Amino acid sequence: MRFDPSLLIALVALEISFVFGANADTVYRYNISVVVRDLTTSRRIPNVPVTLFRLRDTDDWIVVSRGKTIATGGLNFSSRKYEYTTGTYKLRYDFRNHYNVTFYPIIDITFDVSSVLENYPFPVLLSEYGYSTYKGVSN
Questions:
Q1: Residue 110 bridge partners (DSSP)
Q2: Is-contact 90 96, C-beta < 8 A?
Q3: What is the maximum span of the chain, computed from C-alpha positions, in angstroms?
Q4: Contact present, 35 and 68 (Cβ < 8 Å)
Q5: Per-residue pLDDT reduced to its tens digit, 38-47
Q6: Which among 53, 67, 81, 121 could bridge 61 via Cys, Cβ 3.0 to 4.6 Å?
Q7: Are 61 and 53 in contact (CB under 8 A)?
Q8: What is the CATH code for 33-133?
Q9: pLDDT of 70-89, one tens digit each?
């Protein structure tokens, strides 16, 4: 039996496709979520841009995920690029388009994820001149 190098090349290409191609569709779900409400009306606020960052080094923030709140005012995060790990994270809310005069146009909330099994919901109650947040409770 004679060795055919083209078969070896095809086999290696198939193996590379299998190993790397499977990861192309992987979505890492994060147990981090937000919900935004108007404090004065109690209405949920849709279309708020929110960005999730992770601290990579001492002062090197990387964008993990971004999106906009939906009609319920909520947003769940996932990433195709970064696996969900413990560490320091930051949520950046961009409220520049939600009041004519906004005293807090951008709000950053920094927090530590100590367990990837725990849920981290972050409600934000927003008014024209203030905001409030806390680590929410989820089932």
A1: 90
A2: no
A3: 81
A4: no
A5: 888 889 999 9
A6: 53
A7: yes
A8: 2.60.40.180
A9: 999 999 998 888 888 899 99
The neighbouring-strand residues paired with 77 are none
Token pair of 114 as six digits: 């100590």
Query: What residue spans define the domains of the chain?
Result: 33-133
Question: Is there a contact between 77 and 37 (Cβ–Cβ < 8 Å)?
Answer: no
Residue 106 token pair? 């951008």
CA 85 to chain CA centroid, Å, is 12
Residues of the chain with pLDDT under 70: 1-25, 99-101, 138-139
Tokens 């934000």 locate to 124
Please report which residue ranges of the chain form alpha helices under DSSP H.
Answer: 5-24
* Cα–Cα distance measured from residue 12 to residue 43, given in angstroms and rounded to the nearest whole number: 56
Amino acid at 15: E
Query: In 3D, which of 32, 52, 39 has the Cα closest to residue 98?
Result: 39
CA distance 109 to 35: 13
